[in-house]
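Working notes for the structural subgroup meeting. M.R. asked for a predicted model of this chain before we commit to crystallization trials. I am recording the input and output together here so anyone reviewing the notebook later can reproduce the run.

Input as submitted:
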Amino acid sequence: MNSFQPKQGFWVNICWILLRLGFAIIVLLYLFSTSKVPIALAAGVSNQGSSYDLQDVFFALVILSFLILIGRWLRQSIAVLKSLYIPSSIVAGVVALLLGSEALGAIAKTVGGEEAFLANGLFSQPIQDVWSAVPGVFINIVFATIFLGEFIPSPRDIWRRAAPQVAFGQSLAWGQYVVGLLLALLVLAPVFKLDPIAGALIEIAFEGGHGTAAGMSQTIKGLGFEAGPDLALGLATVGIVTGVLAGVILADWGRKQGHISVSSDAHQQPEVVNTVDEKNSALKARRDKHLSTLLIDPLSVHFGFVGVAVAIGWLLLQALTWIESITWNQGGGGLELVSAIPLFPLALIGGIIVQLLLERLGRTYLIDRQLINNIGGVSLDVTIVAALASISLKVIGSNFAAFLILSVAGIAWNVISFIYLAPRIIPSYWFERGIGDMGQSMGVTATGLLLMRMVDPFNRSGAFESFAYKQLFFEPIVGGGLFTAAAPLLIARFGPVSVLLLTTILLVSWLVFGFWNYQRLTKSN
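Returned structure, recorded in token form:
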């Protein structure tokens, strides 16, 4: 019996209908959110000190969620986006940017003047104001979830397994500062009149990614570098795209040159004996039994743990602020550093503290890593879409030459470091392990994992474990850690030359250690 199978054109028409319906819904939401119709949800909640109220926040998130669906559909429909593994959130953010005041709104103003229809794009000004504020809030949730639910071994075990990748990853990060600050001193500041803080943008954008670039926005603006946040977000987009492209090209080059030690033949996949299934099943049973007596949704419990991690981070930040106020900045006349550090790197440390406490108390079964991943993933998607939607194309356009120089310099440093430094720092499986660090240094952790899976799909090299352990010695410092957060302030307070000297010393120190450790491990083997 023949079953009905619709032709491909049928699904194309359905998708176009859904897309048109979606745009109609956005227009209705736009008109509704700018109307004076009172809504019970927003009654009495308006914040007089802000350009938006709770109603605007609600509709901003509703529209943003719909944009994510559009981004997902576009990514699956356009072969180039799918083949490059561009995240749906980035596609959605670009769509929001094009439909906002910077693209569609600018065209409307050019045609019809300042008061033209759609002069603000498809979204009202309060909606866009909400989006500009969202990244600084949601990035705290993203960083709080990084280590929650992850087993944290002893520092000795981590160092034994991941020391070469720690050395290589740290070298990449500090090198980005050195390259960026040299450019700031020699080209960007004297030629393009950019603030020397521009020297930190490569590491903030490439190593930190969109989330860190968005989270640092208020700090950079507060230091007087108004163009910085837009340049950082633009660089983050360049980094994640070129990271995948460079990884694909290097993987092909590595196979031809024989640098990839493991076989990628799918027929040679080894049998994997999962020794943790029984343990995981026991943990899941204990978790389910415990949660069944609480009469609360498991997601709410996990969000509570995330909230505790953020709260601990906030307490740490307040403690550091208090220590600063009674020591080197007593009376407000000394060196002020902590006030410019955002919350998210401390939220990451808060997550580590919560996880260690649960391990010490034997209560790790309370956290399901998958649910924590879901919370962090949603928060990161929201952060990326809102951040990209808030980019100023005018700022990037007026600083395009400097933007291009930073992009090329960052890409060149990462690729050259991978080809030259990785085989001299990582003694075994340097290609499989090093390409993950290179991918992370040009975009996000997911890019690094993707590139490692391209060259070692069955993890014969152990690269995935070393890569994961490396993060414990990496994320709290750079790539969105404490130094990343403090770097713009250090440049503004002490000058780019002092910070260049510091980062150069750190780069040389990690390189020396990496080369020495390579020789030690090679001899011992």
